Q: What sequence folds into this?
């Protein structure tokens, strides 16, 4: 009945089977007179999702998470992961060959200072690290009396004999009916930012920035419509796009050539070198530009100006067309989600369903909208102890049957041409325990606190992150991830620069879309997360001294009432919940085509009353 077109459930290679690769890699390092090498989970543009040809960390270590780094020394090797992936890494990596270490506190450079010796030569690929990352590595090497060596070609690629070819996904035009702004106007705004930076040109090293600027989308990586590419935008004159011509149809080439010269990727280095020889100041994105670009510009006599890519912030603030598009996308997605949630409630109590069944069903309900382009990330469907793995991905081996008494955490999203969605619901299968209801209600109260937040213009995500944690903190609990991330418009589901987290220093601006997803995870028992997407909007506060902002909730899907301890909610929180459910019912019910699902929705969104 159901099937997944955009997701697979095969077990990645891992563990002891990969240890021979580590031995071959060490032989190659010895041949190059290197005593160590750093392998980030990254491509040249620091993308979250990378092409199969760029999965070096997974190929060598077995770890398949979206963030991490490996360091291989002559006698030691370590994989560094953040809190989301600690449990996953422990299952995927051969613990006899690799240590598993924290990615942030302390950072990998701390480990290096303790394991490098005087005279060691640590290699790195400058195309896979930002300049800031390279500087941190260099400082660690200096502290240990070692030397950091930038290699011309990656030694891992030398031993990865079956490495896939780079992708050639076709490029499409993202029409103005979706983008809301023509390329000429975007370029005008970008040039104003280049002038503010005091630069002669800007390198767009982030393919998302290229896609947004020139209103194109692609198919080079999973789940994000990304055309891998670069662009060089001068303060005056015509920009150049560097993209493999084999990706372009006559239509897309004509579209690009209306506003830019189109060159192959190999032309980037000579074109940038030529510009740098004039002594030009060239702006680079500190978050995505490879250290190799800074080295190239400086080596040719130019001045690399590293900082925040101005396109990142321009892209994050959605225009009215993009906002209406995402509202439409969420309305469409809500119908698919409701049909899915009703199906789960009918089928799961039998004990016959598995995690894979739920992933396949949800994707099928979304495909039945006839508008789904892809899922926006691999669906996280974890029941029981698997739900406690924050970024769990079900495989045929890990696939768990959903049993009465379990919680099912399902985090999923869709890519539609008019918008990108991301939603998490936690579902009670059978009767939840009092502890589950307590934890869920604390998470819900934090979610509501973010959704109801009113904050002055200029407020950052870090300033409101604790709103989501306060009720967990009161019980000595917390969660080890940010509360929210930015979301693109038919682009990345994880978009900077704004986020709601302890590290979110970018002010939240009207038109930004962010997730609101507090959670709680009890290792080896269950996981809870509630996620909606929120649009930053202006709001009127009588007597306010400055402009004030609030959130409009975009996601429309019932929150499981069986998991809510209504007596823990304040009257204001209860009103928010009932108003939200009334809005969900009003938006979704007219689009349902069967009475059984309509009746389920009526019950799932019925008003809750204090006991």
A:
């Amino acid at each position: 009945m159901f099937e997944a077109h955009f997701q697979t459930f095969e077990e990645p290679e891992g563990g002891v089977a990969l240890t021979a690769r580590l031995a071959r890699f060490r032989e190659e390092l010895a041949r190059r007179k290197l005593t160590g090498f750093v392998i980030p989970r990254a491509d040249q543009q620091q993308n979250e999702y990378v092409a199969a040809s760029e999965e070096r960390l997974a190929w060598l270590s077995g770890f398949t998470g979206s963030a991490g780094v490996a360091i291989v020394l002559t006698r030691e090797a370590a994989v560094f992961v953040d809190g989301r992936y600690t449990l996953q890494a422990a299952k995927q990596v051969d613990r006899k060959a690799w240590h598993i270490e924290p990615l942030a506190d302390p950072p990998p450079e701390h480990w290096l200072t303790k394991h490098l010796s005087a005279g060691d030569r640590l290699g790195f690929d400058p195309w896979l690290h930002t300049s800031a990352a390279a500087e941190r590595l260099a400082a660690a090497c200096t502290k240990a009396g070692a030397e950091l060596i930038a290699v011309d070609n990656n030694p891992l690629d030398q031993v990865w004999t079956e490495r896939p070819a780079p992708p050639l996904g076709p490029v499409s035009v993202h029409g103005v009916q979706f983008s809301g702004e023509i390329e000429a106007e975007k370029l005008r705004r970008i040039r104003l930012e280049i002038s503010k930076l005091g630069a002669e040109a800007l390198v767009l090293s982030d393919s998302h920035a290229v896609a947004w600027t020139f209103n194109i989308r692609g198919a080079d990586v999973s789940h994000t419509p990304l055309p891998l590419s670069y662009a060089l935008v001068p303060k005056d004159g015509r920009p150049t796009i560097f993209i493999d011509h084999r990706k372009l149809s006559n239509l897309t080439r004509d579209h690009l050539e209306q506003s830019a010269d189109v060159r192959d990727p190999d032309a980037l280095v000579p074109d940038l070198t030529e510009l740098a020889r004039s002594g030009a100041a060239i702006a680079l994105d500190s978050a995505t530009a490879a250290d190799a670009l800074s080295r190239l510009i400086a080596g040719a006599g130019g001045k690399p100006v590293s900082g925040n890519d101005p396109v990142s912030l321009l892209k994050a603030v959605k225009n009215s067309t993009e906002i209406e598009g995402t509202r439409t996308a969420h309305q469409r997605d809500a119908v698919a989600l409701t049909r899915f949630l009703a199906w789960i409630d009918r089928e799961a109590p039998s004990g016959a369903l598995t995690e894979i069944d739920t992933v396949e069903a949800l994707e099928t309900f979304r495909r039945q909208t006839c508008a789904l382009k892809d899922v926006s990330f691999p669906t996280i469907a974890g029941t029981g102890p698997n739900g406690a793995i924050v970024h769990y991905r079900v495989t045929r081996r890990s696939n768990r049957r959903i049993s009465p008494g379990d919680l099912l955490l399902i985090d999923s999203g869709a890519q539609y041409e008019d918008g990108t969605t991301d939603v998490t619901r936690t579902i009670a299968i059978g009767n939840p325990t009092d502890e589950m209801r307590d934890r869920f209600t604390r998470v819900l109260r934090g979610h509501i606190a973010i959704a109801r937040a009113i904050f002055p213009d200029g407020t950052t995500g870090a300033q409101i992150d604790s709103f989501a944690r306060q009720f967990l903190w009161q019980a000595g609990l917390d969660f080890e991830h940010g509360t929210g991330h930015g979301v693109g418009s038919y682009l990345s589901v994880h978009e900077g620069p704004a986020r709601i987290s302890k590290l979110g220093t970018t002010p939240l601006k009207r038109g930004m879309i962010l997730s609101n997803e507090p959670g709680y995870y009890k290792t080896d028992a269950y996981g809870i997360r509630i996620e909606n997407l929120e649009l930053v909007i202006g709001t009127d506060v009588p007597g306010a001294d400055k402009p004030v902002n609030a959130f409009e909730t975009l996601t429309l899907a019932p929150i499981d009432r069986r998991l809510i301890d209504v007596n823990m909610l304040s009257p204001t929180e209860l009103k928010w919940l009932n108003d939200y459910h009334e809005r969900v019912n009003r938006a979704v019910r007219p689009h349902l085509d069967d009475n059984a699902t309509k009746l389920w929705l009526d019950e799932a969104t019925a008003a809750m009353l204090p006991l």
